[in-house]
Amino acid sequence: MSIVHESLDELRSKLAKNEEQLRDVNKLLASQSENETLLTLKRDLEQVITLTRNLVEMKESKVRAEASVESGRGKNKKKIPREWGEAKTEWQITERCQAKYFIPHANGRYKWDIAQIVDKVPHSSGQQGYKVVFLEYGNDAVLTAGDMRTYVPPLVDQIKIGQKVRACWPDDHMFYEARVDEITDDGKYKVTFLKYNNKSTIEINDIQILKEKKTLVSKDKQGYLHVKELEIPEAYQGKQTDSKTVKDKKRKKSRNLKKKHRLLKLEAAQQNRQNNWKRFMTKGIKKAKKKLGGSLMQTNKSMFAAPTSLDGRVGIVNSGSKMTDYHKQTHYHSLRRDPDDYSQLRL
After folding, report:
1. Three-state SS for 226?
2. What is the DSSP annotation of 65-94?
3. Contacts of 48 (CB under 8 A, 6+ apart)
4. How far apart are CA 133 and CA 142, in angstroms?
5. Residues 275 and 226: beta-carbon distance below 8 Å
6. What was the pLDDT predicted at 135?
7. Model-level pTM?
């Protein structure tokens, strides 16, 4: 094995052994100073010791650099958000948690929802299973500890008067959309459940913050679409410390976001043009109606229209219907010339 590829411990051991051999050679040279073999061995050992010592120093500096990089990675690692909760290996019945709610017909996709543990049952995987009831939907499931996280109530400064939240109704312990009406002196919250208009006073542990839906497109009262300006997330913004590969990945993701934003603006502009045309047509019809004093579809009664009653209806016997009077026959089959006309022509 080459000395370059040896580990740091092996190099240190070899260095110590060579230094010990050099000390033995020096002792022998004290009594045999002219011995060529010993002199040659001394020179070789000194060269090997110098080379080994340099390699040890290089490897030690490399180890220190790698350790500093690892510690730096640990410091720069993203902190897990507080509201995500923490994993646990053991859970108790009646304990609240955040549990994975698997979305049906979504290829294994899931989201985290509030749940309560109602029983401990065996799981199909052979692990300890927990039967949970989801407190927003009312359905249940059997999960393992890996699919559960701790329940996290909001902080006091996160709740404001008039804010929409999810609150626990004391009668059935389910969570519904509510509005915070008042914060009492003893730190409780008076809320109104929006769907049923019921009121209750609850503690902060029975409140969950609603996630804000971030949408780039909004519609005003007149039906026009508005696209917000694009903000590139900080995770996609390049840094000087990033490697070329990381910079290229971030640049690619930023370009994709900008491309989607441009498409949204084009679609919104097309929709707004259609909306302009519809509003123009509606406005023109309203103006025409106002000017004519009625509906544009109103027409005079036709002179050929049959009466609405049975009197005077065509085809009804003795109804008094008025037939067309032909005062002069003009059909070419019925034309007859007077004999006097021919005599005049002969003349």
Report:
1. strand
2. HHHHHHHHHHHHSPPPPGGG----S---TT
3. 18
4. 9
5. no
6. 93
7. 0.45
Per-residue burial over 295-329, b if 16 or more Cβ lie within 10 Å, else e, is eeeeeeeeeeeeeeeeeeeeeeeeeeeeeeeeeee
The predicted structure's pLDDT at residue 148: 93
DSSP H helices, 155-223, are none
Q: What six digits make up the tokens of 10?
A: 């092996």
Where is average pLDDT lowest: 28-37, 143-152, 338-347? 338-347
Rg of the chain, C-alpha, whole Å: 47
In this prediction, residues 12-32 reach a mean pLDDT of: 85
Average pLDDT over every residue of 196-200? 91
Residue at 181: amino acid letter: D
Confidence of residue 19 (pLDDT cuts 50, 70, 90): confident
Place of tokens 């080994």: 52
- As a whole number of angstroms, the distance between CA 229 and CA 113 comes to 31
**Given pLDDT bands bounded at 50, 70 and 90, which one contains residue 1?**
very low
Helix axes 8-31, 36-76, angle to 10 degrees: 160
The answer to whether residues 209 and 199 touch, using CB atoms and an 8 Å cutoff, is no
DSSP reduced 3-state for 252: helix
Q: How many residues does the chain have?
A: 347
